[in-house]
Specification:
Blueprint: H1 4-7, E1 8-23, E2 29-43, E3 46-52, E4 62-68, E5 72-79, E6 82-88, E7 92-99, E8 102-118, E9 121-133, E10 136-147
Antiparallel strand pairs: 1-2, 1-10, 2-3, 3-4, 4-5, 5-6, 6-7, 7-8, 8-9, 9-10
Length: 148
């Protein structure tokens, strides 16, 4: 039986540019954009992209890992904030969001998930999803991640 260490195929330092548009209505849109260094690893058939959050994202003290499979994506945050978000185009996924005030239920409907490669290297991710917390709509989010 192989363990994760023996399945690891390669690991590269990468430069990551993240731009997020968060809409909570027609005239209420926030745009967040930041750049950071991270690590990209291929383990088995999955690609993992890991980076430390910054003050700009409001999640300083948290490490984010994105796991990409053929047609799905998981975003895991560990640190000052802990939660996982699962994405699969056309499906609604449910996850728990742990806060200091208790646990919240997140509902995520993935409208679009596009993963682009140049050769066998990950170049970018575009994800468009609707989010609700405990059944109440929070809004639409479009995240564009470029990897160099």
């Amino acid at each position: 039986m192989k363990n994760a260490q023996t399945e690891k195929q390669n690991s590269d330092k990468v430069f990551i540019r993240i731009k997020g548009n968060m809409s909570q209505g027609i005239n209420d849109t926030d745009v967040i954009e930041f750049c950071t260094e991270g690590i990209m690893e291929k383990m088995g058939e999955s690609i993992y992209l890991t980076y430390n959050e910054s003050k700009i994202s409001g999640l300083e003290g948290t490490t984010t890992t994105i796991k990409l499979d053929k047609e799905t994506m998981s975003l895991m945050r560990i640190g000052d904030v802990n939660y996982t978000m699962d994405f699969a185009k056309g499906l609604k996924k449910y996850n728990k969001y742990e806060t200091s005030y208790g646990q919240l239920n997140m509902g995520i409907v993935t409208n679009e998930l596009k993963i682009t490669y140049e050769g066998n290297k990950l170049k970018g991710i575009i994800i468009d999803y609707d989010l609700d917390i405990n059944g109440s709509s929070i809004g639409n989010n479009i995240i564009n991640i470029n990897v160099n």
